[in-house]
Amino acid sequence: MHLNNLSTEELKKRRLYSNLALFLVAFLWGTTFAVSKYAFAYFTPVYMIAFRFTIGVLAMCIFFWKKISKITLKDLKGGIIVGIIFFIAFVTQLIALQYTEAGKQAFLAATYVVMAPFLYWIIYHKKPDFRTLAGAFICFLGIGLLTLNASLSISFGDGLTLFSSLFYALHIMFNGYFVEKQDPVILSTVQFAVVAIISWIFAFFFEPFPTAIGFEGIASVLYLGIFCTGLAYFLQTAAQRYTLATHAAIILSLESVFGILLAVVMLGEIFTLRMLMGCIAIFGAILITELRPSSD
Fold first, then answer.
1. What Å distances lie between residue 229 and 32, 59, 169, 172, 237, CA to CA?
2. Do the beta carbons of residue 116 and residue 172 sit within 8 Å?
3. What number of CA atoms fall less than 13 Å from residue 14's CA on the CB side?
4. Measuring CA to CA, how many Å separate 184 from each of 69, 75, 170, 172, 179?
5. Which stretches make up the EamA domain (predicted)?
6. Confidence band for 295, pLDDT divided at 50, 70 and 90
7. How many helices (H) and strands (E) would you count in the chain?
8. Distances in Å between the alpha carbon of 78 and those of 44, 81, 229?
C-alpha cells in the first residue's frame, strides 16, 4: 500500500510500530559485540560474514518462500545495488580494524548518523529540518562520549573507517529509497544473497577456510545469521517504509548504547560517568528528533 493512501492516524500508528521495530534492531545489533567474541575464535572475519549472511538468506527463504518465489528483475536490481553497498561497508570496516583501535573505530563508524541527513539532502533534495540536524549532532557527541579514544590522529585505518561509514549511511539511504517501491522481504533477501556471494568469493581468495568449528562457534554464527541478520535487517528494511531514513539512522545508533550496556552486564566491563553521559545524550537526540507536535 502506498503511503499516500493511508490516513493520518494509520500513518502515525505505522510509524510508531516502525520506530519500535528499529529499537529492537538496534538491540539485536548491540548483542553482536559479545556474541562475535565467541565466533571470532572459530571464524576469520570475512568467512564469518559469509556464513552469517548465508544463514540469513536461508532463514528468509524458509519463512517467506511464497513471497520470495515471486521475485522480479526490478527486485533484483534494487537488491543488488543495496547489497553491493552493504558489502563494501562491511568489508572496509573489517579491513580498517586491522589498522586502528577498536574503541576509536566504534566512534568513527558511528559517524554515519551524522552523514545520513546530509546524504538525504543530496540524494532526495530535501533539506533536513532543524530537529533532525540538532538530533544528529547531539547523537554524534553522545557516541563520542561513549567510545572516543584519547588519540585523535587520523591514520589509514581511521580514514578507511570513515569511508566505511559513508557506505553505511548510503545503505540506509538506498534502503529507504527502494523499499518504497519494492517488497521489504524480497529486498532484504536479495541484498543478503549479494553480500553472502561476494563474501564467499572474497574469503576463498584471501582467508583460510575454518576447519575446527565447535558448538559455541556454530551457536554464535546461527544467532548472528538468524537474529542479527535475517530478523534484524528485515525489520530495518520493513520499518524504513514508514519512517524517515534520517530518523532511522538516529534510532539505529542505539546499537552503541546497547553494546556498552551488554558489555557491562555480560562481560563485566566498567561503566563510567562519561558512558552514562553518552547514553543520556543519545536518548536526548532521539527525543528531539522523534517527539514532535501533532501538526508535524
1. 10, 9, 18, 15, 11
2. yes
3. 17
4. 14, 10, 17, 13, 6
5. 19-147, 156-289
6. very low
7. 13, 0
8. 29, 5, 18
* Whole-structure pTM value: 0.74
Virtual torsion, Cα 88, 91, 93, 98, nearest 10 deg: -150
Q: Cα separations (Å) of 217 from 22, 78, 213?
A: 27, 33, 6
- Give the number of other CB atoms < 10 A from CB of residue 270: 7
**Phi, psi at 268, each rounded to 5°:** 75, 25
Q: What's the CA gap between 136 and 107, in Å, rounded?
A: 14
| Cell numbers that stand for 251 in this block | 534510532
Q: What is the DSSP letter of 128?
A: P
Give CA–CA dist 141/46, Å, rounded: 31
What letter does residue 219 receive in the DSSP assignment?
H
Domain boundaries in the chain? 15-290
